[in-house]
Amino acid sequence: MCFLGWVISPYTGWTREHWAALADRLLLAARRHASPSHARVGFPGAPGGYGSDVDALEGFARTFLAAGFRVAGEAGRDPLGLMEWYADGIAAGTDPHHPDRWVRLDEHGQAKVEAASIALVLHLTRPWLWDRLPPRVQEQVVDYLAPAVGADYPPINWVWFQIVVEQFLASVGGPYAQEDIDAGLALAESFERADGWYADGSERAYDHYAGWALHFYPLLWSEMAGRAPDPRYLARLERFLDDAVHLVGADGSPLIQGRSLAYRFAAATPFWVGARAGVGSPGLLRRAASGIVRHFAEHGAPDEDGLLTLGWHGPYREIAQDYSGPGSPYWAAKGLFGLALPAGHPVWTAVEEPLPVEAGDFTRVVRAPGWLVSGTRADGVVRVVNHGTDHSHEGSDLADAPLYARLGYSTATFPLLTGDPLDQSVAVLDEEGRASHRTGFTAGPVLALPSGTLTGSSRWRAHWGEQGPGPDHGYSRAGAEMRHGPEVEVVSVVRGAWEVRLTRLTGQAGRLRVGGWPSPEGGPATRVHGGPGLGEAGTEVAATPLGERTLVPWCATPGAAEPGRWYAAALLLGDGDQPPVIDDRKITWPDGTIDDLPETVTLPGLSK
Prior knowledge:
It comes from Nonomuraea composti. The protein is of the alpha+beta class. It is built from 15 helices and 18 strands. Strand 1 and strand 2 form a beta hairpin.
């Protein structure tokens, strides 16, 4: 690494040359797994839930994203011959008579996703690829994409796939329906939530799709349509990015929450979108993006063969959803979107600025997903206490999805992916020791006190059961019969590395258990200190993508909890000395700050 690189990138050391080298490594490694026609890129590994034909289409379309960004940012300079290589694949893949022809949009829904990537790159590289394709191949491409017109798309981020494909068709004189585009834009508007956030559909679905899809496509669609971005898109993006930079750990790890985590450094996408749109500070945006990609590059992704496997750092098949196959992780290429910006762009020439967690301790309320966010400079960890997200609706009464319904997520811990709720949970244990679920909870307010301490709450009817039948897409599946128990209410008070978690049960109660952070052995310290009544304690050991030995401390009532009684526990993740002290309706934090208990809470032995 040259000295100049550290001057411009004092936090990561990464420059545009590092990004370009990573993209080239990924693209050259992918060629080794391509069919002779280049239309199918079949990476090693067990087939995904949609079969090897879809896997091979994903392998082509998603690596095509990286190739397109690489050439677009170089204004057509193409020493690796990427455009010619992918042109061959397009010619074969769109030929209905070729043995390597692609799965069509009217044959499998996943083709609708991949078609959007193909259309997007054909737009970005038009002078060097589309304009040079023989007329016959151009006609094949139009015929391949045409089934998007008038087709049904799920009312989630997929609506943008139809918009992008039809806008491209319109730009090349192909068939399209303006009513499809208009309806899609209107539906996408319905996803808007507070402070620039989008939900992925009508549910409380907040995850990385907010950035790598729902903020990504509006900007690119605007370019494809030949119009300036809607000022509303830009305002939302700028506000969203102000939250997003607070959700990156000092080590570059993005928040470990939500489905499709195998896409890894796709989490860098919204920062590049901001740079392209001219919103946000270029040095801070690149710091966030470079931190994320460097985090994975230094932890084995890509691996020694230059491949992205299904996993987080290394391979971990259990992280995959049913729609995930060996080609799926290459949606990480979206995180390389910055390469579509030329070397002289301010995002590449500005000096990196520190992330919020590097600049100092912070607390922050993120209203749309109902998150209380706390970052601590000493350990570089960002934590989220979750009182608003479960990828469901209030009252839905479903089993919890581990990636959405836990009470806490962070940049240093991975939720347990199997079993009943344990980590970051408040659960009632039935007579067999099974833990209850919280999906469908009623969200309370989330707010910051004048001291900077955060508070939030939620309540739900404890229920027991399994996920319903159907494919696992990372969120709760309906259809299973639930058993019901008492109402559970939780109030969180958060400051620094600590949370005071206050819990009470209403009605016939069972044993109450409070689960702490699932920290990998050797990772940040994780502790749970139970207050009066929570006299039992222990630590469970489980496997996660961050470590075969992940420690989950817990505390519990020895017997059935007393209905109506408030119980208090203090939970730590990271650097922390003595836990906060609750006395005389005051919480005294380790830093000396004193906050009042929420007015709704009356602990036994304390005056109201």
